[in-house]
Specification:
SH3 type barrels, five-stranded antiparallel β-sheet, three-stranded antiparallel β-sheet, elongated
């Protein structure tokens, strides 16, 4: 299991599945399953019993995890999907992510 190139709060483009072509913000990353939950993407209907939060019960639409390989990071500077590389920053010595297309550091 390698290092994931997508983090929480990133904007991503969906490459495959029923939500193909849609963009959204990553809400949660599940590293041990290589999956992420993206806002408004991969919606599923879940049947719920009545509870305190939902006294009526019924069918609730919610996001389902999508595999990391089906997501591509959107470059904040250009707005296009890009591949992500990792390199050591010259000033701080920390490892940073950078866009393969524009060579700019991401965050």
């Amino acid at each position: 299991m390698g290092k994931l190139k997508i983090k929480k709060e990133d904007t991503v483009l969906v490459l495959a599945g029923t939500s193909k072509g849609s963009k959204g913000k990553v809400v949660k990353v599940i590293p041990n399953e290589n999956r992420a939950i993206v806002e408004g993407v991969n919606m599923v209907s879940k049947h719920t019993k009545p509870n305190a939060a939902n006294p009526q019960g019924g069918i609730v639409k919610q996001e389902s995890p999508i595999h990391i390989s089906n997501l591509k990071l959107v470059d904040p500077s250009s707005g296009n999907a890009t591949r992500v590389g990792r390199k050591r920053d010259e000033k701080t010595g920390k490892i940073v992510r950078f866009s393969k297309t524009t060579k700019e550091v991401i965050k």
